[in-house]
Amino acid sequence: MNNPRSFKQELVSVFGQPVAENPTQYMIEAAFKHHQLDWRYLTIEVSPEDLENGVKGLRAMGFRGGNLTIPHKVEVIQYLDGTTEAAGLIGAVNCIIREGDKLIGENTDGKGFVQSLKEVTDPVGKKVVIFGAGGAARAIGVETAIAGATEFTIVNRSQERGESLVKLLNEKTDSKAKLVLWDGPFSIPEETDVVINATSIGLYPDVSAELAIDFFTLKPEMVVADVIPNPPRTHLVQTAEEKGCPVLDGLGMLVNQGVIGFQLWTGVDPDPQIMREALEEVFS
Ligand code: NDP
């Protein structure tokens, strides 16, 4: 008998270690279901020693792509066939896309952030303060500069990482960047348009942690963004809301980077609201 059904799903995944608490599967599979796509998103624990074999497996089993999380975002690059220009500049890949038989690395963290930012302000010509200089800060800095922001103040605890991001922005984008070492409460310059927490301060379980900022210098005209997705209502988010600032929480960025990955893998524009609701359910 002829069976018109296919029992073979298309596969995508996230590799990380630890990875069990990563909620991306729940968000992406909610969208697969909503858009009636017979796809699966697998959450897979892969150790650094097994990353090369993991990518070979993904290739051999015809996965359509995947995400990378801690600690694989930098190391994975050597096992791929190439990266997009932005991911190359950032020096980190959080999303693999299959193009024919090639696996290409993309970075959707910064793009997801810029998409959230554009919902409240046009990045062109903006002066931006970024707390942190790690992977998230690099992705946000590069993509916000590509989107047209002109001045960056990087506020970071360690000099080396801070200098590396400042150099990247000054040498590889059209923006101007400077470093301020973060050794006490930081006063936000009056002319600042956008303030971003790209550190892990406030992330579960250390939910009461506060950024060392002189909050008197935070003005209602400044857009305030926090990358922390869990919990989304960080001390910074709450303080900025009390001040009357337009606020972006870490869930928006997480949803938007997922939206971009979903589009790249499936060719379908997912409904971001379905994805956000799935995450809110997880974090409620
Ligand atoms: P990294 O480890 O690469 O960088 C962490 C940064 O935070 C560094 O600049 C570090 O400073 C700084 N930092 C950490 N703790 C402190 C502290 N107590 N005081 C001052 N500075 C501190 O991490 P990532 O950039 O990959 O991730 C950062 C955060 O972004 C994570 O919480 C992650 O969950 C979140 N994230 C959110 C995404 C989203 O979609 N919402 C996407 C990607 C990441 P130093 O250089 O001095 O060590």
CATH architecture of the largest domain: 3-Layer(aba) Sandwich
**What does the largest sheet look like?**
6 strands, mixed
> What is the global morphology?
globular
Query: Hey, roughly how much beta strand do the residues contain?
Result: 15-25%
Number of strands: 12
Name the structural class.
Answer: alpha/beta
Q: If you compute it from the alpha carbons, what radius of gyration comes out, rounded to the nearest whole angstrom?
A: 19 Å
Identify every distinct bound molecule in the structure, by name, code or SMILES. Answer: NADPH dihydro-nicotinamide-adenine-dinucleotide phosphate
The poorly predicted ranges are: none
Q: Please give the share of residues in helix.
A: 25-40%
Short description:
The protein is an alpha/beta fold and 284 residues long. 36% of the residues lie in helices and 20% in strands. It has nine helices and twelve strands.
Architecture blueprint of SSEs:
Blueprint: E1 10-16, H1 24-34, E2 39-45, H2 51-60, E3 65-68, E4 82-83, H3 85-90, E5 95-99, E6 102-106, H4 109-118, E7 127-131, H5 135-146, E8 151-156, H6 159-172, E9 176-181, E10 194-197, E11 223-226, H7 235-243, E12 247-248, H8 250-266, H9 272-283
Helix pairs in contact: 1-9, 4-5, 4-8, 8-9
Task: Write up what this structure looks like.
The chain is of the alpha/beta class and 284 residues long. It folds into 2 domains: 10-107 and 253-282, Rossmann fold, CATH 3.40.50; 110-248, NAD(P)-binding Rossmann-like Domain (Rossmann fold), CATH 3.40.50. The protein contains 9 helices and 12 strands. The chain has helices at 24-34, 51-60, 85-90, 109-118, 135-146, 159-172, 235-243, 250-266, 272-283; strands spanning 10-16, 39-45, 65-68, 82-83, 95-99, 102-106, 127-131, 151-156, 176-181, 194-197, 223-226, 247-248. The strands form 2 sheets. It has a 6-stranded mixed beta sheet with strand order 2-1-3-5-6-4, sandwiched between helices. Strand 11, helix 7 (235-243) and strand 12 (247-248) form a beta-alpha-beta unit. Helix 4 (109-118) packs across helix 5 (135-146) and helix 8 (250-266) crosses helix 9. The longest helix has 17 residues, at 250-266. The protein starts with 9 loop residues before the first strand and ends with a helix. Bound molecules: NADPH dihydro-nicotinamide-adenine-dinucleotide phosphate (NDP). NADPH dihydro-nicotinamide-adenine-dinucleotide phosphate is lined by residues 109, 112, 132-137, 156-158, 161, 182, 199-201, 203, 227-229, 250, 253-254, 257.
